[in-house]
Amino acid sequence: MAATLTATAPARPRKLLASRKTRVGILYALPVVVYLLVLFVYPIFSTLLLSLKDADGSFTLHWYADALTGVNLSVLFTTLRISAETAVLSLVFGFVLAQAISRLKPLWAGLAMLVVVVPHFVSALVRTYGWIIMLGDKGLVNETLAWAPGAPYSLLYNELGVVIGTTSMMLPYTVLLLYGVMRGVDRRLLAAAASMGAGRVTIFRRIYLPLVSPGLASAGLLSFILSLGYYITPALMGGPNQTMIATLINQQVTKENQWNGAAAQGVILLVLTLAGLLLVKAVSSLGASRKKRSAS
Amino acid sequence: MMELRSTLAGRIVLTAVATVILLFLALPIVVILVTSFSNNAFASFPPDTWTLNWYKALFADGSKWPAALSLSALVAAISTVFSLIIGVTAATALVRSELPLRSAVFALVLGPLLIPQIVTALGLFLLFEPAAMLGSPLAIALGHTVLASPIAVLILIATLRGIDERLEDAAASMGAGRLTIARKITFPLAAPGMIAAAIFSFITSFDEFYISQFLSSVDTVTLPVRVYNSLTFDIDPSVTAISAILIAFAILALGLVALVRWLGSGRQESLLSVENTVGVANPAGETV
């Protein structure tokens, strides 16, 4: 990002102009930097401090010990499990949909993309409510499947309900990311492989998949990360066994006044997210180098 | 996927599966829109009889929705103003100047979009609680701006990058001052992007839930928090109507962004091409 943003280095006679441009840049960057330092970085920093502070103000790690034992630990595992399930499903569905859209004629592709993008801008709360109406015992899904054995199915207030909900929230991200990746694949490479006698399966496995797999990995990781902090859908569509870490943070702050514990869980969530983001970065630089190699 | 490619059966299967996934995305929204006119909001689908009662109930006496709606609108308006100020200055700094630590500033801007919102909300709660600012619309707006301003910055970065700097250089070479250039060239060209940034900031704040929930008090409850409470504690059928309104609002906002983009798309070309310059100089349209 930095490399593309930086303008070409100014020549020596323009040095005066350049220093003026630097001053203007710093001046204009001030509002955003100050704002986010005060209302974003500092609050997170004080969350970190609070998670390390005992009731009497001394240093302690026992909030973390609490957060990583007993019920809290199982909530953490539930969070990881639901996020993983969501990531896998939104990756698979996203792959199929992006694949189908990338074959459509521009008009149809545009319309399909509209169906992908518009829900993303509708409040997650509202979409979750839509799922609750649809998945109930007398909802659209069970009415439609009334002929099937075992109907009505219980699709709500269990893990299936939560994963259906979170997957539909993450799907726009994966579809858009994968669509971009698929359009970026150099079709000539596939044609070259075909001309040398490679079969469809071979081309898919040896050429196509290696080219799109970094994109697949980042899309999956991203939906995993974004699911970690999810609260609305698990709280409204899940049962007691689907309590996620964000629900716990919310409960401790609003009901139990237990800020230190909430802070420790927030920091754990933050660390998991940052680790995921580092992985995304590693994967995408791997992808860039792979692309370069295959093109040469 | 690939091996299915050219066979007819494969194509049909792929299309069918893709259609199901698209329905998976669209149906929750369609169902709400339909149910909001249904006589029996929580029973069967599709509805047997139709009604406007839920919409009427929204604005009936003693309804708690108008207060939530106006609070959310107020908060979103304040947040939009802050986001635009931050967005315009930050985008200018990032695109049009020599900024030291540029990538660090950019990472800072992306931060709120990547960090779980519940963590940001918790931090803001710890900031505003000691200041006794819980329930203050200003505090909620300040909090929302943390999430909305990065979106505004990203949109305005794209906008500024799309403006041909030669236009500004040309104006400068003809003796236009900095203010004149900003007013006559940059601002008109950036206006569609600024409107888009404003609309997205507004929606972001209007729909925001986590920060609102942590910063709200009993008296000041934003619309999403009210919807959430209504879904968890006191089931109120008019929540379908308010949800439908929120959907209509989102679609309207997206449509507006598309319209503004479309109207603005011709501007730069008209300034750059010679034929049109004649048209500008000769507004009556009588070509030489």
What does this structure look like?
The complex is a heterodimer of chains A (296) and B (288). By secondary structure, chain A is an all-alpha fold. Chain A has a single domain (61-295), classed as Orthogonal Bundle (MetI-like fold). Helix content of chain A is 77%, strand content 0%. Chain A has 13 helices and no strands. Chain A has helices at 2-5, 15-51, 62-67, 70-102, 106-121, 124-135, 140-144, 159-183, 187-195, 200-228, 232-237, 245-254, 259-295. In chain A, helix 9 packs antiparallel against helix 10. The longest helix of chain A is centred in the N-terminal third of the chain and has 37 residues, at 15-51. Chain A starts with a helix and ends with a helix. With 288 residues, chain B is mainly α. Chain B has a domain at 65-265: MetI-like (MetI-like fold), CATH 1.10.3720. Helix content of chain B is 74%, strand content 0%. Chain B is built from twelve helices and no strands. The N and C termini of chain B lie far apart (59 Å). Chains A and B meet through helix 2, helix 4, helix 5, helix 6 and helix 8 of A and helix 1, helix 3, helix 4, helix 5 and helix 6 of B. Chain A: One of its GO terms (biological process) is transmembrane transport. Chain A: It comes from Streptomyces flaveus. Chain A: It is found in: Cell membrane.
Q: Provide the succession of SSEs of chain B.
A: HHHHHHHHHHHH
What would you report as the Rg of chain A, rounded to the nearest angstrom?
24 Å
CATH topology of the domain at 65-265 in chain B: MetI-like fold
CATH homolog superfamily of chain A:
MetI-like
Unreliable residue runs of chain B: 274-288
What is the 3D shape of chain A? globular
Binned strand content of chain A: under 5%
Provide mean pLDDT of chain B, rounded.
85
